[in-house]
């Protein structure tokens, strides 16, 4: 049977278009209610922001129809909904009468959102096959390390609010660690897919738990040391946790060994205790976390608990259903448009609104993990799983810090917090997830135009069968590969049919 071309019988993506209309309508409704609550009319810039968001959303929709017609139809509307809700919240804070909300953040927010969405479209156009990124495994490692080190360069980096995680280029500021997480995800995926068999070998048992071999601890020790260096040198607990958690999570995905999770948690806990006992900025974060209502901590000039206390009071004031758009006092929380926008949304939308937002994030993460299972190559599985996991981890760190589950960090809420670096980096993550989802959902008879050729069948002692897109089931040798052949290269995808 002749193979169909990718464009023939491709989905029309009608569901995505309908969901985009719903997402944009909810965001516009939020901006409309903000205006009538604070100004008795449509807020300034309402039509500009609405038209720009709609144009960008449907531009991405068209790009997907042309370049990735089988991509997931839920991820883009979910992200657009988050971006639209954040636009309404940032606009509401701009209209605040309080002096602490100085500056027009809404125009900057829509500008960075537009750049991020256009960048995502460009990535979908340029990267026709996610497997091409595997060639950049060690290049991505170098890029990630350079990005992490940049804030420490004299004259380029600058310390803000106790953390040295920013670089300034002219009038613009960037947080390189946001982009480093993507580079490290590519590196970890490429490294682990090449070494997973070695890392999966079992060592000794401890309390019934199968631990890895001591000789295989090198990679996790190196990443642990880099994470501690970030914590010590840049005073950034959030980024340190993000990098280390990303590696441990992807290591578990690659090997299916719970022992790596136990070792990772133990190492991070030990590093955190050492950092707390030595460094004053870590002690200050822990003190604010444990006793925010202490008058000495609340009133001190630097590193006070004022911000987190105001955020907690605001969420308590919001109750179950919230005070309503523009009806709360969220503008009293410092950095409510960026670091503490989750607390601001909690006051105005209530617990119900916050749970709805968390559910949208959960949908994005679930779709990413689903396509990690469905994609046919090991590199794509690890990359999609890692990107979905890092978004979930960042969400936990941000929400956990604001609600005092864990100490407060400097990370921001993806797609909702105002900030150029976060928006750009997370739209890149979405572009990669959409590209991988296209490969996962594409029928095997429809190769992507310009994609890498399928690997040649292995001449080893086993056959490989793909069952439901969930990964190769090997017969014969463990990897189903001949000598000198990696597991990915040896896996010939044949759905339910023996070669």
Structure, explained:
- There is one protein chain.
- The protein is mainly alpha-helical.
- Helix content is 59%, strand content 6%.
- The chain has 16 helices and seven strands.
- The strands form three sheets. A three-stranded antiparallel sheet has the order 1-2-3, with no helix packed on it. It has a two-stranded antiparallel ribbon with strand order 4-5.
- Residues 1-6 and 450-499 have low confidence and may be disordered.
Describe the secondary-structure layout:
Elements: H1 14-38, H2 46-67, H3 75-94, H4 105-126, H5 137-149, E1 157-160, E2 163-169, E3 172-174, H6 176-199, E4 202-206, E5 209-212, H7 218-233, H8 237-255, H9 258-278, H10 280-290, H11 295-299, H12 306-318, H13 341-374, H14 378-402, H15 420-441, E6 464-466, E7 472-474, H16 487-490
Output mean pLDDT. 81
Shape: globular
Distance between the termini: 17 Å
Gyration radius over CA:
24 Å
Percent strand: 5-15%
β-strand number: 7
Question: Helical element count?
Answer: 16
Class based on secondary structure composition and strand pairing: mainly alpha
Helix content: 55-70%
Strand order of the largest sheet: 1-2-3
Q: Quick one: biggest sheet?
A: 3 strands, antiparallel
* Low-pLDDT residue spans: 1-6, 450-499
Q: What is the H/E string?
A: HHHHHEEEHEEHHHHHHHHHEEH
């Amino acid at each position: 049977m002749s193979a169909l071309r990718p464009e023939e019988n491709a989905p029309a993506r009608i569901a995505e278009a309908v969901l985009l209309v719903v997402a944009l309508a909810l965001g516009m409704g939020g901006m409309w209610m903000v205006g009538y609550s604070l100004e008795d009319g449509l807020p300034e810039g309402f039509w500009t922001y609405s038209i720009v968001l709609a144009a960008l959303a449907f531009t991405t929709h068209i790009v997907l129809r042309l370049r990735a017609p089988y991509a997931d139809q839920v991820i883009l509307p979910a992200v657009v909904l988050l971006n639209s809700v954040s636009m309404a919240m940032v606009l509401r804070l701009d209209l605040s009468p309080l002096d602490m909300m100085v500056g027009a953040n809404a125009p900057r927010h829509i500008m960075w959102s537009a750049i991020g969405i256009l960048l995502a479209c460009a990535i979908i156009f340029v990267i026709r096959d996610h497997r091409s990124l595997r060639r950049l495994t060690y290049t991505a490692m170098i890029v990630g390390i350079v990005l992490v080190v940049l804030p420490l360069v004299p004259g380029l980096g600058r310390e803000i609010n106790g953390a040295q995680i920013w670089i300034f280029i002219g009038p613009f500021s960037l947080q390189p660690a946001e982009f480093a997480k993507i580079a490290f995800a590519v590196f970890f995926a490429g490294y682990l897919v090449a070494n997973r068999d070695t890392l999966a070998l079992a060592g000794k048992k401890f309390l019934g738990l199968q631990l890895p071999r001591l000789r295989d601890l090198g990679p996790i020790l190196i990443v642990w040391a880099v994470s501690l260096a970030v914590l010590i040198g840049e005073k950034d607990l959030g980024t340190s946790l993000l990098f280390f958690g990303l590696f441990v999570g992807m290591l578990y995905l690659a090997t299916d060994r719970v022992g790596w999770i136990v070792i990772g948690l133990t190492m991070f806990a030990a590093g955190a205790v050492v950092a707390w006992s030595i460094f004053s900025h870590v002690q200050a974060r822990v003190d604010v976390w444990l006793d925010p209502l202490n008058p000495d901590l609340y009133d001190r000039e630097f590193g006070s608990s004022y911000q987190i206390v105001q955020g907690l009071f605001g969420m308590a004031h919001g109750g179950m259903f919230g005070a309503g758009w523009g009806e709360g006092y969220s503008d009293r929380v410092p950095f409510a448009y960026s670091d503490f926008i989750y607390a601001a949304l909690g006051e105005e939308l209530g617990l119900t609104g916050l749970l709805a937002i968390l559910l949208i994030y959960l949908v994005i993460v679930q779709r990413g993990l689903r396509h990690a299972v469905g994609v046919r190559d090991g590199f794509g599985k690890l990359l999609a799983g890692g990107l979905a996991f890092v978004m979930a981890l960042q969400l936990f760190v941000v929400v956990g810090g604001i609600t005092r589950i864990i100490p407060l960090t400097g990370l921001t809420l993806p797609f909702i917090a105002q900030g150029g670096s976060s928006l750009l980096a997370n739209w890149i993550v979405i572009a990669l997830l959409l590209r991988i989802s296209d490969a996962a959902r594409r029928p095997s008879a429809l190769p992507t135009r310009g994609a890498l050729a399928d690997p040649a069948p292995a001449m080893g002692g086993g056959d490989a069968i793909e069952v439901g897109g969930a990964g190769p089931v090997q017969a014969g040798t463990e990897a189903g590969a001949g000598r000198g052949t990696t597991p990915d290269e040896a896996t010939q995808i044949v759905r339910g049919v023996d070669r």
